[in-house]
Every structure is written in structure tokens, then in C-alpha cells.
UniProtKB/TrEMBL annotation:
<feature type="region of interest" description="Disordered">
    <location>
        <begin position="154"/>
        <end position="181"/>
    </location>
</feature>
<dbReference type="GO" id="GO:0036159">
    <property type="term" value="P:inner dynein arm assembly"/>
</dbReference>
<keyword id="KW-0677">Repeat</keyword>
<dbReference type="GO" id="GO:0036158">
    <property type="term" value="P:outer dynein arm assembly"/>
</dbReference>
<keyword id="KW-0963">Cytoplasm</keyword>
<dbReference type="GO" id="GO:0005634">
    <property type="term" value="C:nucleus"/>
</dbReference>
<dbReference type="InterPro" id="IPR007052">
    <property type="entry name" value="CS_dom"/>
</dbReference>
<dbReference type="InterPro" id="IPR008978">
    <property type="entry name" value="HSP20-like_chaperone"/>
</dbReference>
<keyword id="KW-0524">Neurogenesis</keyword>
<dbReference type="Pfam" id="PF04969">
    <property type="entry name" value="CS"/>
</dbReference>
<dbReference type="GO" id="GO:0030331">
    <property type="term" value="F:nuclear estrogen receptor binding"/>
</dbReference>
<feature type="domain" description="CS">
    <location>
        <begin position="3"/>
        <end position="87"/>
    </location>
</feature>
<dbReference type="GO" id="GO:0007399">
    <property type="term" value="P:nervous system development"/>
</dbReference>
<dbReference type="InterPro" id="IPR037894">
    <property type="entry name" value="CS_DYX1C1"/>
</dbReference>
<dbReference type="GO" id="GO:0043005">
    <property type="term" value="C:neuron projection"/>
</dbReference>
<keyword id="KW-0539">Nucleus</keyword>
<dbReference type="GO" id="GO:0120293">
    <property type="term" value="C:dynein axonemal particle"/>
</dbReference>
Amino acid sequence: MPVWVRDYSWQQTDAAVFLSLPMRGVRVTQANIFCTEQYLKVNVPPFLFEAILYAPIDDISSTAKIRNETIFFTLYKKEVGMWESLIMENGDKEKMQRIRENAVIKAQEKADEEEKSKAVTKREHKKYALEATMKWLHKQAEARRAMNANFSELKDLNDEEKNPDWLKDKGKKMPYSECVA
């Protein structure tokens, strides 16, 4: 059974709301916070705080800072003005449930968009890496052609003797005295 957090404090300016939520005796992480335009939920077992906000906020710019078992929110208002209260009051249960459900749906849509954006970025990085590899291979092929053109006077070598790996192995097999001489 959750313990509902009721001993919060809040202040406001025309542009922002400052909310302080005490979470005594538990470790809080960002994963415990769910915030959308009009809905805020903090679930840190056994504590639970849920608020249908009085008016919409800019959930992208708003912040949450965790210090000494307390969460400090800075919620930027979408419309400048003073709120009568932090939480929407006198709303019927159906309206409140609709706001909760819409918050979850919007959050899911946002997560899906971010996932798609990450996939596009990943594809672009792979494409760039492939293009860079192809350019490098093209340069390597050009260098080999240039080397082969420069050694046209070595026509008397057979294919095996022109192979760099064969030459490397041959060099390894040679006694040191022959290499220095």
C-alpha cells in the first residue's frame, strides 16, 4: 500500500512553479519521476505523489533535482500567470482519469518518436561509415595501381614474387646475415 506524499511545499512566480517533495529514508532516481504537460507522478516505494497540475507546463524545459532525500522541481508554466493552487481541484474522476491516460499516451508517443529518431541517426552513421570505408578502399586500389605502374621494369618477376605477403614470408625465412649483407 503506497504512502501518499501530502507534506509537499510549493511557491510560484508568473513564469514558474517551485515544488519540493520530501522522500525521507529512500533513494530517489530520475526513473522514479514521470512528468508531462499537466501530470506529475513520483513513485518511490513506499511513497507516491501524483498531481494533475492546475495548468499546463513546459515539460521539456522543466527540471527535477534530487538532493538529500528531497526532489526539487522547477516547472515552467506554458502561460504566464499565477495559479490558484498547484493541483487541479474540483475535477470529476472521469476527467482526472482522462488526463492521466492522455499523459501516458503522449509519453509513449514521445518515446516512439525518440526511438525512430535514434534509428534514423544510427542508419546515417552506418551509411557514413560505409562511405568512408569505400573511399579508403578506392584510395588503396589507386595506390596499388600506381605501385604496379612504377614497377613495370620488374616484368621478369613471376606473380608469386610480386605478392607482398610472399615477399614478407621470404624475408622472415632469410637468415639474418643475408639480410645485412
